[in-house]
């Protein structure tokens, strides 16, 4: 059983007036190892703009004792870094015969532990984690830049608003201005680095890197709502499992691989191998998610592969409903033009000349056949296709019967020079492998292929075949 802390013996001053009667202690907000914190009202403030503060009560020690020196150091260091917006503002302090009172900025949202564990505001919200953790990094970066090292960074010493943002770093009771410390055991075991309490193998340790270790544990708390281990020594089963298997956190905390890779660097046994604050911030900002339970971000649709010979058709459609019996007019509803890019991930009906299963097209040899009656009619349809090469041309969402009803309203695409043999003479099958008319054709050229690009005849072959046909006629 742990012995009671020093704050346990402090009396409850709720309802009392302090600081020459200017501050009324309204309620107790919390207590720590060395003091209690109250919500106080400044009774000298105007009624329409009441001012509230947080007042920390600590026991007053005899001068020149170790406890008195720790108190003086806390007040001095906190006042040094109080100007930053990510540090709790230090207003003033005063003494009585028994106690020391520190008047601080009041943060109504509570501490980080309450937001993270009780209310779980960060769970499954990577955007909020990035914002809140970035504000915490701002605070630590500022105090380090002023040669102040906290040595007791934990969720209970971090304050925030009800949304989990507007971070404030508080409680500088164990802070130091010495970069290389010989005071072991400072802080909470959950957040202490392995070198900060192992005095048997270390004569000293880096206070800066000890703060970075605590930040890494807090980051683990935020993304998983769990502690990675109780203490960072081999007697702890969790830490021993991590030392034996560097991917232990990936399996135990259900985090993503990028988050696991970052934590492996942050929890390196060599402090010099751990990332700096700037590297830590950059790695966190680059991640899209931290836990497998995070809300999935919208995934962009995959891009379709660009065809080797792209074809873009400009199509203008006007649809009409069949008029009722006995009337001769119908109302037309125009539709806007839209591009058709090939290929499309839709079901196409290909134009294949000479195929009974394909969509019928008007032939150049004669008028089109009369279509069977259909309740849906298609107003005049214009299809203009300008292919760069001879590729498959398809249409979708156009009924076959309605297209037949349009008669000669469909114009065939303009073809390149080597792609119009069958188009000019659709009744002639011209072989491309032999110029002998008596030889049975082995390859027939088709204007539109339904599957693959056909083998095109050269211009010399075309001219030779045309001369043979002229002689035959």
Explain what you see.
This protein is α+β, with helices and mostly antiparallel strands. The protein has four domains: 6-104, Phosphorylase Kinase, domain 1; 112-286, Orthogonal Bundle (Transferase(Phosphotransferase), domain 1); 310-414, no CATH class; 418-473, no CATH class. Helix content is 25%, strand content 16%. The protein has eleven helices and 18 strands. The radius of gyration is 41 Å and the shape is elongated. The N and C termini lie far apart (115 Å). Residues 306-437 and 439-452 have low confidence and may be disordered. ATP binds at residue 56.
SSE layout:
Blueprint: E1 17-18, E2 23-31, E3 35-42, E4 51-59, H1 66-80, E5 90-95, E6 99-104, H2 112-118, H3 126-145, E7 158-159, E8 168-169, E9 180-181, E10 205-206, H4 207-224, H5 237-244, H6 248-252, H7 257-266, H8 277-286, E11 312-316, E12 318-321, E13 332-334, E14 338-341, E15 349-350, E16 376-378, E17 382-385, E18 394-395, H9 400-405, H10 421-424, H11 459-472
Antiparallel strand pairs: 1-2, 2-3, 3-4, 4-6, 5-6, 7-8, 9-10, 11-14, 11-17, 12-13, 12-16, 15-18
Helix pairs in contact: 3-4, 3-8
